[in-house]
Design a protein that fits this description.
mainly beta, Quinone Oxidoreductase, Chain A, domain 1, two-stranded antiparallel ribbon, 1 helix, 4 strands, 8% helix
Length: 85
């Protein structure tokens, strides 16, 4: 599946479209289909290495502002209630 990845330190212009393995849900988890996802100011700080959280590259920033559509939902998995800002 496709993902916008941070592979190097820099601004949003350094993000690259790449292929990643499709995840398999574990017990109590589900896989969701995401058509669009916001990359906000904290995400920009993270890809610029200016934030206290520095994930190992490559990683896909964003993910907090998305409308998820469940596509793989094993028994017992639930979609959390939407969060309000």
């Amino acid at each position: 599946m496709k993902a916008l990845l941070s592979t190097a330190t820099g601004g949003p212009e350094t993000l690259e479209l790449g292929e990643v393995a499709r995840p398999t849900p574990g017990k109590g988890q589900m896989v969701v289909d995401v058509k669009a996802c916001a990359v906000n100011f904290p995400d920009v700080l993270i890809i610029e290495d200016k934030y206290q959280f520095k994930p190992q590259r490559p990683f896909a920033p964003g993910g907090w502002s998305m409308p998820p559509t469940p596509i793989r939902c094993p028994k017992g998995a639930t979609l959390p209630k939407a969060r309000r800002c």
